Each structure stands twice: as C-alpha cells, then as structure tokens.
Amino acid sequence: MPKVIISCAVTGSIHTPSMSPYLPVTPQQIADEAVAAAEAGAAIVHLHARDPDTGRPSPLPEHYALYLPQVRDRCGAIVNITTGGGLGMTMDERLAAALWARPELASMNMGSFNFNISGAAGRVEQFRYDWERPYLERTTDFIMSNTFAQIEGAMRRVGDQGTRFEYECYDVGHLYNLAHFVDRGVVKPPFFVQAIFGILGAIGPRPEHLLHMRDTAVRLFGNDLVLSVLAAGRHQMPMVTMGAILGGNVRVGLEDSLYLGRGELARSNADQVARIRRILTELSLDIATPDEARAILQTKGTGDLGF
Description:
BKACE, 37% helix, transferase, 11 helices, two-stranded antiparallel ribbon, TIM Barrel
C-alpha cells in the first residue's frame, strides 16, 4: 500500500471561538498549531485566516501574511490555502488569499449544496463575540455556492500560478463535477480528492457511503486518483481510519472536529495528528513525509510561493 498522507486542517471557518478554548484564532496561535501538527506527522497543513481581534473567519491576505511566513520558515509541511473561505464570502474574497500566496495546494469545493451548521449554536451556553450566534444560525437558509462557472474560473485563476488542488467533494455528484472538468482538460492529474462526510446538507457519515464514494472515484479517475477522507465531529477518527484501510489518505484537525474522543476536547491539532498517526502505524501503514507527499501530488515545491 502507498504511504498515507496526513493533512491537518488547523482552524477552518466553521467553529467559532466560544466552542473551544483550544481553537486557534490569533495569527500566532495558527502558526504554532500548524507547526506542531507538522512535527506530529502532518505532511499538509490546510489553512484559513481569522480576524486577530474577533476570531471571525477572514479572507484578507494581510491576515494570512501575519502567520504564513512563520509556517514556511518553521516546518517543511505543504501549505494548502482555502478557497472555501468563510460563510457568506464572495468568490473574489474566497480566492484572494490563494491568489496572493501562490501555495503548493489550494482547496476547491466541487459543487453547490446546502451547508447547515446552525445546530452548533444551541450547544454553546454563552458566546464571547456578537458575530458568532448569527453566523451559525443563518445557515438554515444558506447555500455554499460553487457553480460550474465559479469553479472553472477559480481553477483557471489559481491553477495558472502552478498551484494544485485538493478537490473537496461533499457528495457523489461532486465527483462527477470534477470528472467534467477533467474530461475538458481544465485540470490535470493526479487528482487529490477529499471525500467529506457528515456536514448537514451533504452525504452522511456512513461506511457504505464511503465505499460508494471510493468506488465511484476509482472508476472515474483510475490510477490518477489520490483519495483522502475527512469526517465531521465524532465521526472523524472512525471514518478516516476506514479510508486509510481502503488505501486512502486522511485529514484531521480542529476545523473538522473539536474533540479527541467522546466528551474530550482536543487540546491541540497535534493531539489529533498524533492519534491518527498512532492508529495508522499500528495498522502497519507508513506515513508520508512532506517531500514524499510532494512527489505523490506533484506539487511545484516551495520555490515559487507568494509569502
């Protein structure tokens, strides 16, 4: 079996500061958490930015600039910048950081869908910031927009600078959307597909769904496929472990789950990376280094970054 690439999504744009005291929100916290995750075994760190004063997700390149050079200088992990941004951002806002940073990898959502995280608001007794509750509750009437025109425009603008993509697929139809762009020659192999389970409005976190997503991806992309799996919340560790057993790669991190185990908040991203690394090692699976991941994904390396 090939070596397993561990990705770590360090902060994201779903969880808000009041949900966990361990969620990194300041630039220094994000930098420290990314570096620690890499030291624990993550070959890729998937990164968002937040407003340093409020912890709200931010699209501004100047907020990314507060921590990205540290990550570059302090660890060798592949930097993967979001183009999903935060809820309610325009496509131009969502692309701004990736266009400025010219990273080795950028995420690319492969379809529009209902994206409902409103239930999280009911589990927080008191919010630290005024923006948090409405940010969550508005998602009962929210569509994450990724039309064919938006996707193609983003692929061309970001891809023209040598950045490769983590194709985020929240449902089976998103795999077919990617296949459409492959057939038209808009994107080139290998195809790093992130199969995502457990977001309300998308495919559920069931083992049979993972098997179906995997089989469909293999049929569509064959030997050009590099499959990875992430799952939200309590489904994180079981689903990504199953994905690895099936020959895939894994993603963990506080963007996807705030917990390390039942009722136990993860105190850091590195805790989650260390746990999945231990599980994979005990399954006799080898872990890819950042440079091995670069070779697998055929990224451009660190010589042409914007930060």
